[in-house]
């Protein structure tokens, strides 16, 4: 393994600054790491981005650009994804795995995808379709505005589902920090299954109410069926956002990824 970088691909409505405690702690261990601000995620002031709402493919192209910069510098790359971020990260690996780049006589590339309670679509499936069959009472209340951007009309309910390991007032505080997200990104089908190209790790969150354990397990089963290989699964007692509720466990998990062959 050469010089290593980690790219964090946040979930819907999440900003890079929400990942700063993880980034700072992992960087202190000598690991190059950064969290990306996906095109499908709104602006820090809570506003939507100008122009058409970005698709999953727009997010994937953005991630791929960052991978390529690191790979062209000869660096191996691990993608750490959360929630929605699992879908565009899977798409972004096309032509950028270390194996693919070696076949082109190039150094660097993606060596692993590490999904943290993530949506991992099958080829041709949209990330929004993964949760479509959940009962209405188990889904996050969300509304799409006239410009195609998702927002959350009931932040109390959002907090109860996403931040259920926190006291109610703290969970509500975190829910208030979320920004708008492009609805188009959830409706875009996966056109490239990057998890077939590289080893896969998965941080399984046993008390996630947003992507329930049954959905997480279905994603893992699909990956293993499609690749014929076992995923490296770590299970923790966490809600949907372990980077906040189980910070030290997430830091240790990410650091261990850098040591995994």
Number of strands: 9
Tally of alpha and pi helices: 11
Shape: globular
Name given to the CATH homologous superfamily = Alpha/Beta hydrolase fold, catalytic domain
- The gyration radius over C-alpha positions equals 17 Å
Distance between the termini: 8 Å
Fraction in helix: 25-40%
Structural class: alpha/beta
Which percent band covers the strand fraction?
15-25%
Order of helices and strands: EHEHEHHEHEEHHEHEHEHH
Largest sheet geometry? 6 strands, parallel
Secondary-structure map:
Layout: E1 4-9, H1 20-28, E2 32-35, H2 56-72, E3 76-83, H3 86-92, H4 98-103, E4 109-118, H5 127-130, E5 143-144, E6 149-151, H6 155-162, H7 168-175, E7 181-182, H8 183-187, E8 200-205, H9 213-227, E9 232-236, H10 242-245, H11 247-257
Parallel strand pairs: 1-2, 1-3, 3-4, 4-8, 8-9
Antiparallel strand pairs: 5-6, 6-7
What keywords describe this structure?
18% strand, 3-stranded antiparallel β-sheet, 11 helices, globular, Rossmann fold, alpha/beta, 261 residues, 6-stranded parallel β-sheet
What does this structure look like?
The structure is a single chain. By secondary structure, the chain is of the alpha/beta class. Strands 2-1-3-4-8-9 form a 6-stranded parallel sheet, with helices on both faces. A 3-stranded antiparallel sheet has the order 5-6-7. The relative contact order is 0.18. The protein has one domain (4-257): Rossmann fold. Strand 8, helix 9 (213-227) and strand 9 (232-236) form a beta-alpha-beta unit. It contains 11 helices and 9 strands. The chain has helices spanning 20-28, 56-72, 86-92, 98-103, 127-130, 155-162, 168-175, 183-187, 213-227, 242-245, 247-257, and strands spanning 4-9, 32-35, 76-83, 109-118, 143-144, 149-151, 181-182, 200-205, 232-236. This is AB hydrolase-1 domain-containing protein. InterPro entries: AB_hydrolase_1 (IPR000073), AB_hydrolase_fold (IPR029058), Sec-Metab_Biosynth_Hydrolase (IPR052897). Residues 6-245 form the AB hydrolase-1 domain. Pfam families: Abhydrolase_6.
